[in-house]
Every structure is written in structure tokens, then in C-alpha cells.
Amino acid sequence: MNIVVFGVGGVGGFFGGKLAKAGHEVTFIARGKHLEAIKENGLTVKSIEGDFKIPKAKATDEVAIVKHADVIFLAVKSWQVEDIGKQLKSVLKPDAVVIPLQNGADNAEKLLISLRKNQVLGGLCRIISKIESPGVINHFAFHPQIIFGELNNEKSDRVLKIQWLFMDAKVDCIVPEDIQAAIWTKFLFITTISGLGALTRSEIGVMREDEKLRDMMQQTANEILEIANTKGININQKTIEKAFAAIDKQAYHTTASMQRDIMEGRPSELENFNGYVVKEGLKMGIPTPVNSFIYNCLLPMEKKARKHLRN
Fold this sequence. Notes:
Layout: E1 2-6, H1 10-21, E2 25-29, H2 32-41, E3 43-47, E4 52-54, E5 58-60, E6 71-74, H3 81-89, E7 97-100, H4 107-112, E8 122-133, E9 136-149, H5 157-168, E10 172-174, H6 179-200, H7 204-209, H8 211-230, H9 237-249, H10 257-263, H11 274-284, H12 289-310
Parallel strand pairs: 1-2, 1-6, 2-5, 3-9, 6-7, 9-10
Antiparallel strand pairs: 3-4, 8-9
Helix pairs in contact: 6-8, 6-9, 6-10, 6-12, 8-11, 11-12
Keywords: NADP, Oxidoreductase, Pantothenate biosynthesis
EC number: 1.1.1.169
GO molecular function: 2-dehydropantoate 2-reductase activity
């Protein structure tokens, strides 16, 4: 299969790198100094599960490369997905498939604005990684997993073929019984820690051990659960319990990627996390006071970062 990885940050660099290391045909879409470094020196991945390097990684900034792709993995930020879907519309093969891996609950829906239903799968991943320097990815925590499936949960031939690619690359790959439940389970976890972490400038260990902050995280998760259930998503209180079990297992000094983006003055996924919960709550008539508080407190910083981006 001809594979394109759109975005070579911590997610795309690691999972795409593993596929390339296994000998599969992978082209990376990157930009700027990161792209230059990959072209010149290859892609280096530092990982708690073993470092590796792709000396001759194929990389470009030309979106048109996807016209030859069978599978496109989107490893960009949630707020970029809809625009990328529009870019892909005119160049994708009719039977090509796009799999979004970023955080957020509605990435597949954003792609379906421009793409056909048969061209989109649901997806997510679990990994803590980042760009350490141009051309270098650092996977520094969490056992990596990639999870995807048909939006109707069919165990189709193409899903099983893509799963085999990752199994061949020695990557933990799951095709769940319910892809939407899997997506919302990850969304609940990451939204519960990200916004409050950014607002308090606190590591996860601080938040989970502070009685008041832990209660705010609990309320954040409860609001997300009510939104999900109203939308017909099959998650429940056990999902929240598992999320907090995961929170309690995280390394004390862990921070979320959205939190780091906001703290460093970069555009973040705020609109796609707490902002999404607030907007869906307004549509459904469901109060979301804690998510609203977090969202509105962080919004001025988000607007400032995006104004800087436009300049």
C-alpha cells in the first residue's frame, strides 16, 4: 500500500516512522525546518521502546502527493482537519482512505464535509511524544497504540489490511467494536486534563492530588459524558472511572499537548476540546458550567496566539 502521513509531529513521526522502518512505502508531508532536516538527514525517532532512524525518509510539502496514496494518516492538530479535507478532495483517488489520528471528538465529521463516506475512517492514537528538534521525534512516555475502524464498525477487508501493516511494523493496533465509543473515551480523558492543566499551569500530579482541582476534573468529565450520551455515544460512568485510573497512573510531571501549546503561546486545540463541549451543550440545552469556565478563561490567550499566527 502507498501510505502518506500528513503531519510529522510526535504522532505522525512515530507511527509513520515505524511503518517506514518495516519497509512499507511511506511519504511524509511536512514543512519548514522540520522538512529540510528530514530531507537532509532522515527522520530520527527517540523512543522509550527503542530508538530508530529512517535515513532516507521520503518527505515533501506538496499536498498533491496524496493522489497516489491508498491510505492517508492525518497527524495534524484538530483545528486543521477541516481545511485539509478540502485540500484533499480534488486529489484523492476514489478508493483512497483517510484516517484522522488527532485528539478531538468530531474529526471524521469534519472530513465528511468534503470527502465521501467511503473515504473516511474513524481513528485515534495513544502516545506521548513531540518534535524534539527539526528531524527528531521524541516518544518519552506511554505505550503507543493506534486505533481505527469503519464509521459503521464493520470489520472490512481494508481495515484488516491496514491493521496488518501496523502489526507487521510491531505497533500495537486495535480495531474496536465501537469506534465512536473509543474516540469519545480518549476525548473525555484528554479534555478532562488539558484545559484545566492549561488554566492552572499545573502538572497532572498537582491536579490529581489537589481536592478542589480533582473535583473540577470530575465535573468536566461528567459534562462530557452527558453530551456523549445525548449524542448516542455508548460510554458511561465506568469510562470516567477508567479515565481517572489512567490519570492516577500518569507520571507526576506529565502535561498535555494542548496545555503546552497554550503555555508556550501557540494556537491550540481549545476550540476542539472544551470549546466543543460548550458548543454542543448549547445546541442540546445541556449546561456545561465547568467546561464553559475553563474555555472562556483560556479563550483570550487562544485568540492572541491565532492573531500572531495570521501575522
